[in-house]
Amino acid sequence: MSETRLMKGNEAIGEAAIVAGCRYYFGYPITPQTELMEYMAKRMPQIEGVFLQAESEIAAINMVYGAAGAGARVMTSSSSPGISLKAEGISYCAGAELPCVIVNIMRGGPGLGSIQPSQADYFQATKGGGHGDYRNIVLAPNSVQEMADLTMLSFDLADTYRNPVMLLGDGALGQMMEPVNLEERPFVPQEKSWAANGLGKRTKPNIINSLYLKPEQLEAHNIHLQNKYQRIIKQECRWEEFSVEDAELIVVSYGITSRIARSAIEMAKRDGLKVGLFRPISLWPFPSERLLTLAKQTRAFLVTELSAGQMIEDVRLATRQIKPVHFYGRMGGMMPSSREIYNQINLIVREKEAVK
Amino acid sequence: MNSKLYARSESLTDAPFHYCPGCQHGIVHRIIAEVIDELGVRKQTIGIAPVGCSVLAYEYFNFDIVQASHGRAPAVATGVKRVCPDSTVFTYQGDGDLASIGCAEVVHAAARGERITTIFINNAIYGMTGGQMAPTTLVDQVTTTSPYGRNVNQAGTPLCISEMLSTIQGARFIARVAVNNPSNMAKAKAAIKKAFQLQNSGEGFCLVEVLSTCPTNWGMTPLEAVKWLETNMIPQYPLGVFKDAGGE
Amino acid sequence: MTHEMILAGFGGQGVMVMGQLLTYAGMLEGAHVSWIPSYGPEMRGGTANCSVIISQEPIGSPIVTEATAVVAMNLPSFEKFESSLSSGGILVLNSSLIDRQSKRDDIKTYNVPANEIANSLGDARMANMVALGALNAALGYIVDTSRIMEAFKKIFAKKPGIIASNELAILAGVKHITG
């Protein structure tokens, strides 16, 4: 069945997870991701999967930990405050190297914040979020089709690297509808010889664990994790570029904001301005190397996010600040218009003209 | 002809227990291992280890183990059991783990009638962190965080988990036992065996609370600790079956 | 051609589904489409609105701030979104509930008594369908009316009983524009 359907982003994630072979979902209601949970509640019983509404986000992530530990493809989803509650469990998943997919449909914060779209959980998602030296692979879709595609990719990456993968969306992407094509794909369950699913024919017990009381052992485990993260950095950086070849200004933006930025760039290009877009798709690993290359050929960057400036730190690190990095952000659930970003582009380009 | 009177249970590894002298974790481990051996389910058993003194349970049990975060063992067990519905899944939790931080998880696992077995070790104190007050600490009991004795006005009253969980419809079998003498050990083993058998026949949530000693943090000799358990804990936490929903 | 539309009304007037039908119909035509709601507290009581884009080009921002068309189903929506119309844009006013006119002379306004027309067809709840038919006609048929019905049948597959009456409402909206 490769029929094009009109779906909400949240629903597309759910269906894509099912296509990817996910048969276990544990969640707790929170706006603006609840449609995903409701979708799973409806769909899982139809395919003999398990949908379970947990008593809390904490319980949900620990059910994920158990199901992943037993070798299943498993997913949970939440929105910002709920992800904070899951942080300990995510750290355990990272420590025990359990493949799982965690969806964060971000909303405004801090605290209870709002239920409007936001990108203020970038730090939390990409720098760990829980305790300890660990990384989630973080993927940031910018369309409903990508919500589906990257969900499927998330499951594959999680299994490949035995690592939690976070799909980072926002309230706007979760709620919006676009055509989506879900290609059926044959799913071959991976043999997980490490899973704790009963000894069966094995003689040696499998232990799912993140406890290493001897510091030498814990350091060795950390070195092992860091080596894995280096492999992921090498192999899994993803991004999209638009019109960067001769751009004098490159806008760096991800998720829903990159859509708005793209419209602004098209307006600017109609004025004859040389502006391009760099959109990280993997937020961790961050496509630093490519950005450094671009820094050598462009004159300035404009980072735009729905936050006070979080990804901008990675852009500065990546480009080693050999070119100015400007910022424009909105917070608290406010979204910039294309015109606002267009005005920022104009401001920067005109300043550059003046110093030419 | 010689006959073997005692053998190490197949469900235990060769690792010597690290528990303090007089601690009863070892006895309960042994009982669980014997029950699993007798039921012939070792190859299909997945245990969930808690945070607390028994955090290293995975070193002692000779079957698959998932080590859980503090209090979340029933949620982790839920995830495991849903993926492996034909397996035997149990959690092993202390009083800080189950009755304090993990209270919500165990209540909801029971409410869902989750087909798991929970072995709940109640020794009225936090062991691994060095003797702090637990929800099950007795009134006036001295701990490092109730140095003047547990004060009801300030720290409330002991939480009776078995009584509480027995009010939940989804709970199939709830019993409290002790391992302070051979007769009680036999009763404890019978209850634990029943809690596993009921799980294996798909009957729902089963919990066995085991009253246990902590001589180190109680500041007693092992013998004094057993006596203290008998004179102080059992009156507060009476032994018996609190719920047996299938007992036609 | 890119149609960037804002459909607005109060919660319960069916502006979300109006937008979804149009979006679905656009998708059936093979166009690039997007639909995005404003949601949350706004949905309860005040104005509810959604942005719909139907375009021959890939869509950048799905959020419409400079609209080529606005449908205002009630007065607060008219007040809120009149200024969002680009010059040369089209305003469809539900004149059953809005007794004011736009003072802008750079846009074209269509007054559609959607509630009255829907009432005359037997159900005031179909005012959104009247407005949808009118909007599509006013824009010179961005989608074929039959596509809207096709979309309707997909979205309301479980309620076949309401198809015929809603089709009449859509056609009545079209007729109000074409005369």
Automatic annotation (TrEMBL), chain A:
Keywords: Oxidoreductase. It is an enzyme of class 1 (oxidoreductase). It comes from the Bacteria. Residues 247-340 form the Pyruvate:ferredoxin oxidoreductase core domain. Residues 15-186 form the Pyruvate flavodoxin/ferredoxin oxidoreductase pyrimidine binding domain. Its EC number is 1.2.7.7. GO terms for molecular function: 3-methyl-2-oxobutanoate dehydrogenase (ferredoxin) activity. Gene3D superfamilies: 3.40.50.920, 3.40.50.970. NCBIfam families: PRK07119.1. PANTHER family: SUBUNIT OF PYRUVATE:FLAVODOXIN OXIDOREDUCTASE, SUBUNIT OF PYRUVATE:FLAVODOXIN OXIDOREDUCTASE-RELATED. This is 3-methyl-2-oxobutanoate dehydrogenase (Ferredoxin). It comes from Pelosinus fermentans JBW45.
From TrEMBL, chain B:
Pfam families: TPP_enzyme_C. Its EC number is 1.2.7.3. InterPro entries: 2-oxoacid:Fd_oxidoreductase, THDP-binding, TPP_enzyme_TPP-bd. One of its GO terms (molecular function) is thiamine pyrophosphate binding. Residues 58-210 form the Thiamine pyrophosphate enzyme TPP-binding domain. Keywords: Oxidoreductase. GO terms for biological process: cellular respiration. Signal peptide: none annotated. PANTHER family: 2-OXOGLUTARATE OXIDOREDUCTASE SUBUNIT KORB-RELATED, SUBUNIT OF PYRUVATE:FLAVODOXIN OXIDOREDUCTASE. This is 2-oxoglutarate synthase.
Automatic annotation (TrEMBL), chain C:
The keyword Oxidoreductase applies. Pfam families: POR. Residues 11-174 form the Pyruvate/ketoisovalerate oxidoreductase catalytic domain. One of its GO terms (molecular function) is oxidoreductase activity, acting on the aldehyde or oxo group of donors. InterPro entries: 2-oxoglutarate_synth_KorC, Pyrv/ketoisovalerate_OxRed_cat, Pyrv_flavodox_OxRed_cen. Keywords: Oxidoreductase, Pyruvate. SUPFAM superfamilies: Pyruvate-ferredoxin oxidoreductase, PFOR, domain III. This is Pyruvate/ketoisovalerate oxidoreductase. It comes from Pelosinus fermentans JBW45.
